[in-house]
Amino acid sequence: MAPNARVGYGSCRVYCIYNTLTGEQCYVGSSALPRQVRMGMHYQSAYYRRTSDWHKHMWETGLDNFEMRTLEGPFACASQQELSRHEEVHRVRINPRFNMRKACT
After folding, report:
1. Residue 7 DSSP SS3
2. Would you say the C-alpha torsion 62, 68, 69, 71 has a positive or negative sign?
3. How many Cβ atoms are within 10 Å of 94's Cβ, its own excluded?
């Protein structure tokens, strides 16, 4: 996810979204946006769109049953590619059910 122009890549983080009912680490992501904004975007996709298995799962399980936890950061990155490389390290380590593709090539 590309940050907006005001934020840049000065405060990046890699996060995992946990299902608080099961303790499952469901999804690994990264963002240069504030945590609340990025989690709000996940909630919005689950509530309105549900086009991915991940957002369908959030909706069916209940949006209140998920929380975002920081795995790494905040840290500065030079680019989206650098941020994606950090995310990929954690995605491979955790192997969450709902990450369908690599974060970077």
Report:
1. coil
2. positive
3. 15
Element (H, E) at 67: strand 66-75
Helix/strand/coil percent split, the chain, to 5: 40, 25, 35
Q: What is the Rg, in whole angstroms, of the alpha carbon atoms belonging to the chain?
A: 13
State the sign of the Cα–Cα–Cα–Cα dihedral 51, 14, 102, 28.
Answer: negative
In the predicted model, residues of the chain with pLDDT beneath 50 are 1, 3-5
End-to-end CA distance of the chain: 15
DSSP for 15-35 reads: EEEEETTT--EEEEEEESS-H
The predicted model scores a pTM of 0.87
| Interior angle at CA 2, CA 38 and CA 94, nearest 5 | 60
